[in-house]
UniProtKB/TrEMBL annotation:
Species of origin: Alcaligenes endophyticus
Protein name: ATP synthase subunit b
Family: Belongs to the ATPase B chain family.
Pfam families assigned: ATP-synt_B
Subunit structure: F-type ATPases have 2 components, F(1) - the catalytic core - and F(0) - the membrane proton channel. F(1) has five subunits: alpha(3), beta(3), gamma(1), delta(1), epsilon(1). F(0) has three main subunits: a(1), b(2) and c(10-14). The alpha and beta chains form an alternating ring which encloses part of the gamma chain. F(1) is attached to F(0) by a central stalk formed by the gamma and epsilon chains, while a peripheral stalk is formed by the delta and b chains. F-type ATPases have 2 components, F(1) - the catalytic core - and F(0) - the membrane proton channel. F(1) has five subunits: alpha(3), beta(3), gamma(1), delta(1), epsilon(1). F(0) has four main subunits: a(1), b(2) and c(10-14). The alpha and beta chains form an alternating ring which encloses part of the gamma chain. F(1) is attached to F(0) by a central stalk formed by the gamma and epsilon chains, while a peripheral stalk is formed by the delta and b chains.
Transmembrane segments: 6-26
Membrane topology recorded in Swiss-Prot or TrEMBL: Single-pass membrane protein
UniProt keyword Cell membrane present: yes
Keyword Ion transport: yes
Keyword entries, A-Z: ATP synthesis, Cell membrane, CF(0), Hydrogen ion transport, Ion transport, Membrane, Transmembrane, Transmembrane helix, Transport
Intracellular or extracellular location(s): Cell membrane; Endomembrane system
Function: F(1)F(0) ATP synthase produces ATP from ADP in the presence of a proton or sodium gradient. F-type ATPases consist of two structural domains, F(1) containing the extramembraneous catalytic core and F(0) containing the membrane proton channel, linked together by a central stalk and a peripheral stalk. During catalysis, ATP synthesis in the catalytic domain of F(1) is coupled via a rotary mechanism of the central stalk subunits to proton translocation. Component of the F(0) channel, it forms part of the peripheral stalk, linking F(1) to F(0). The b'-subunit is a diverged and duplicated form of b found in plants and photosynthetic bacteria.
NCBIfam families assigned: ATP_synt_b, PRK05759.1-2
Length: 156
């Protein structure tokens, strides 16, 4: 064969192969590359959107955390105030009850003292009558009277 003919046929085969490749092979490859590029771009956009959503969620969480801490602090302060009020009320009631009990105790002590005085008067009167009776039964003697008075003192 002739070298020129061989080069000519090789050139025709090359152009046919190039045309076939450009017509049937290259479009699916470029379509696959374009689809892949689009998926990557969508994935990056979704990642950016996810980062933005995460930042917003963290900001909301920070606000909610601050609000919860503030509300918790307010509730603790209110509870402390309420506890102090309850303690003060109980202390006031205890003071009133203490005053009532002390007054009752003073009244009971005064009544008991009066009862003891009355009993002592009755006993002294009975002893005095008994002593006078014994003195009158005996004959009048200073030494005997002194003895009886000493006995009465001992009984008192």
């Amino acid at each position: 064969m002739n070298l020129n003919a061989t080069l000519f046929f090789q050139m025709i085969v090359f152009f046919v192969l190039a045309w076939f490749t450009m017509k049937f092979v290259w479009p699916p490859i470029t379509k696959a590359i374009e689809d892949r590029r689009q998926k990557i771009a969508d994935g990056l956009a979704a990642a950016d959107k996810g980062k933005a959503d995460l930042a917003q969620a963290q900001a909301r969480i920070s606000l909610m955390d601050a609000a919860a801490k503030s509300e918790n602090h307010t509730r603790v302060a209110d509870a402390e105030k309420q506890a102090a009020a309850i303690i003060d009320a109980a202390r006031g009631e205890a003071e009133v009850e203490k005053a009532r009990i002390v007054a009752q105790a003073h009244q009971d002590a005064a009544q008991e003292a009066q009862r003891v005085r009355d009993g002592l008067r009755n006993d002294v009167a009975a002893l005095a009558v008994k002593g006078a009776e014994q003195i009158l039964r005996r004959e009048i003697d200073a030494q005997a009277h002194a003895e009886l008075l000493n006995q009465l003192k001992a009984e008192l």
